[in-house]
Amino acid sequence: MNAKDRARREFDLMADESTLDEVIQAMHLAAEFERGENQIRRGQVIAHEAAREMFSEARRRADPDFPPSRQQPETDQTRKRLP
Predict the structure, then answer these.
(1) 22 secondary structure, DSSP code
(2) From the CB of residue 17, how many other CB atoms can be counted at a distance below 10 Å?
(3) Would you list the domain boundaries of the chain?
(4) Is 10 exposed, middle or buried (CB count within 10 Å of its CB: 0-12, 13-18, 19+)?
(5) CB neighbours (10 Å) of residue 18?
(6) Predicted local confidence at residue 16, as pLDDT
(7) Which of 3, 13, 36, 83 is the least crowded, having the fewest Cβ atoms under 10 Å away?
(8) C-beta separation of 7 from 29 below 8 A
């Protein structure tokens, strides 16, 4: 199936009331899925855990407080009172 046929198929699946922006967005999304499928066929993939680690590392570089501390800040209400 060539690109024109794929676009026509995508267009036919849309509601008659679709706006031009919605049509363009659907075509863009279909193109991105096709690109991803081609990358999978070529073996250009990474494991889920590797991707998670890459994103976590990037987040840590961007925000030194990532991940957020699980400890609640100490307040008068949370401070343990000694007898």
Answers:
(1) H
(2) 6
(3) 3-62
(4) middle
(5) 13
(6) 92
(7) 83
(8) no
Q: How far is CA 48 from CA 16, 25, 57, 81, in A?
A: 38, 27, 14, 45
How many Å apart are CA 56 and CA 61, to the nearest integer?
A: 9
- pLDDT at residue 7, rounded to an integer: 86
How far CA 17 is from CA of 7, 9, 13, 22, 41, in Å, comes to: 18, 17, 12, 10, 35
Give the whole-angstrom CA distance, residue 83 versus residue 62.
Answer: 44
pLDDT tens digits in sequence order for the chain, 83 residues long: 788 898 888 889 999 999 999 999 999 999 999 999 999 999 999 999 999 999 888 888 888 777 665 555 555 555 555 44
